[in-house]
Amino acid sequence: MSVKDRLIKFLEQENISQGKFEKHVGLSNGFVNNIGAGISTTSLTKIRSKYPSLNVQWLLKGEGEMLQKNTEDFNLGEAVKKTEATVEVILAAVAELLARSTGQSSTIVKEQLEDLVNKRLNPSE
C-alpha cells in the first residue's frame, strides 16, 4: 500500500473528503491525488498539525497502527530527522554506485540524485 493509499484509507475512516482535507490542512487542490513517492516535510508538518492522532510512521511506511493512542509520545521532528538521515544514507550509497559505473564525481551524482528526488517528492511546491 502506498502513502497515497494509506492517506485515502485514513480519510475514509475519518469520513473526510479529499477536498475538505486539503482545504483544512492548507494543501493545494488535488494534493491527495497527486501524491507520488512520498510527502514533503512541509506537507507532512501541516497534516500532523491538523491531525495529530494520525500515526506518521504508519502513513509513511505502513508501520504500526493508523491512529496513535497517545499523541504526546510522538515527536514529529525526531521522526523527520530519522527519515531524512535514512534518505541521506541511501542517496550517498546510490550516488557512489553510479559514480563508480559512470566515472563521474560521487558529489556531482549525489547532487543530481537529490534534485531528482526533491522534484518527485515536491511536484507542486
Question: How would you characterize this protein structure?
Answer:
This protein has 125 residues and is an all-alpha fold. It folds into two domains: 3-73; 76-121. It is built from six helices and no strands. Helix 5 (76-102) crosses helix 6 (106-121).
Brief description of this entry?
The protein is mainly α.
Name its key features.
125 residues, single chain, mainly alpha, 62% helix, elongated
Note the overall shape.
elongated
Domain count = 2
Contiguous uncertain segments of 5+ residues: none
Radius of gyration: 16 Å
**Beta-strand share of residues:** under 5%
Structural class: mainly alpha
Secondary structure elements and their pairing?
Elements: H1 3-13, H2 18-25, H3 41-50, H4 56-61, H5 76-102, H6 106-121
